[in-house]
Specification:
mainly alpha, about 5% strand
Length: about 130
Amino acid sequence: FFEGKELRLKQEYFVVAATLQDIIRRFKASKFGSTEFVRLDLSKMPDKVAIQLNDTHPALAIPELMRILVDIEKLDWEKAWDIVIRTCAYTNHTVLPEALERWPVNLFQNLLPRHLEIIYEINRRHLEVRGVL
């Protein structure tokens, strides 16, 4: 049902967003917890952080991390994408189509419009590199 899909998308986004905020907060803080020292160079994050996406449930981590890096941390797209692809890894445990989550575009547009823009841009760049565009 639509309401169930909407709730599921909200839940998955909440968990992903909270986790990424915590990861970035911890990365910026020194290893001794001092608030005096903050790591500002996020390009070093993949040296200390690995995010393993297990199946499609946490897949929102990619556009959410891009949103954080581009919109909040003010990195340009290329630097942000480099951090994302060096930080995130994906494992899929099934090839059954019914096991892979899919979201209606209108639901995504209503709940996460910025993320949909980012996903479209990732797709556009992917197609451009492949010579499709």
